[in-house]
Amino acid sequence: MIFRRRGRPWRSLLAAASLAAAAVLGVGPQQSAQAYPAPVSRTDLINALSAVSGAHTVSGIFQNPQTPNQWTQKYHDITGKYPGLWGSDFLYDAPTVAARQNIVNQGKTEWANGSIVALSFHTCPPTTGSTCDWTQDIEGRLSDAQWTQTITNGTALNVAFKRRLDEAVPYLQQFKDAGIPVLFRPQHEMNEGWAWWGGRPGPDGSARLFQITHDYLVSKGLTNLVWVWNVKDISGGAAHVADYWPGASYVDIASVDAWDNHQVPYEWYQAMLNVAGGKPIALAEVGQTPTPATLTAQPRWAYWMMWSHYLTDPAWNTNAGVQASAWDSRTDNQGQLGLSGSPGGGGGAPGTGPITGLAGKCADVPGGNTANGTQAQLWTCNGSAQQTWTVAADGTVRDLGKCLDVSGGASADGTKVQIWDCGSGNTHQQWAYRSATRQLVNPATGKCLDVTGQSSADGAKLQLWACNGQTNQQWTLPS
Fold first, then answer.
1. Are both 89 and 144 inside the same structural domain?
2. Residues near 323 by Cβ (< 8 Å), separated by ≥ 6?
3. What is the pTM of this model?
4. Order of strands across the sheet with 462-465?
């Protein structure tokens, strides 16, 4: 977000907001939360977020590292629930830099309680030291010559920038050592020039700094990071997001911050879907919780994160509005994401055996026919090879040497689900399991494996359909 919008840096706003009391309305019933397993890979978390997209969204809230559970508790005071995502930032000024270990300590606690962890980094520019000033430095600008040096490997400013990244490595490593994946969002809101890293379109602009950050931290062995690319909902900017896109190989989640609008405009929702190319999309910062109407019109947001004190700012939120968002049946609060490792569970180990569904019957390849395009069906379980599926750690579901495949990668209700030659990285053949609802979802479309017509008759065809929670979309996978 642009912290200057209220005329002073974010930390002062948090301090002031913490002194304000908020009236609390009636609180809804307590949810049933579960702790998340560890270790969990970055792929497991991406698969879980891909799986919720289209039917659910994970709630979240940002925390100052100096008071790392203040706004989580306030969310609970208002709603009776804890958010499903906990966010913080490594930041830039001396007091918050000194509090960075709090991020790790609280993040581990939140993960154990059933919340995923999302981190950002307001990195000081390479022209300054490890701590810096908001107005002079974070909101400052590099000259074109300084920028060119920063993105040129081996130059003094490039090395200085990497030293800034090094400061986060020991903390991110602690999450890796604990088996916790982290949603990591560097150079946020890069399509607007309020920060020194932003407002530079093109291949040698802000996107290049994102690429450098990615490659450098991966080279440090931080394989637990889920890479979140981020822009802001500036007027007219939806048509230009591709000017800041670093490339699909650098991004796991495409996100937008909703600050110029209380509810994100549909054009930005569509822009995120377009640039993401089947990857999950998210609202990385919001000042107002997404309304039920927004969740209906824009169902593919995998998560949203409220920015701390805006939760109780009457210009942005009411308790009733926050409750409507938190209590919506599509909102996953703490412990409700259904994160259980790879599609087959078990933290990434493949499972082989029957996939059982409606009336206890099995997913089946008719007659053991291995021809490409053979439509899968439901059939009485018989232990045959044509019902012996391997749910693999790479997101594929395999039988008879072929992969379960969405015909043509189409997203229309009723699209045939078939077997086809397996292809590396083919989104038609990617599946993620929602353990809480027992749904098997194709992340690229956000739709579910479905038995046609809710029929339990032998030979009922399997298809793709909008996830609806009905029993013909409930499956039990091999362990």
1. yes
2. 25, 26, 28, 78, 79
3. 0.73
4. 432-434, 439-442, 447-451, 462-465
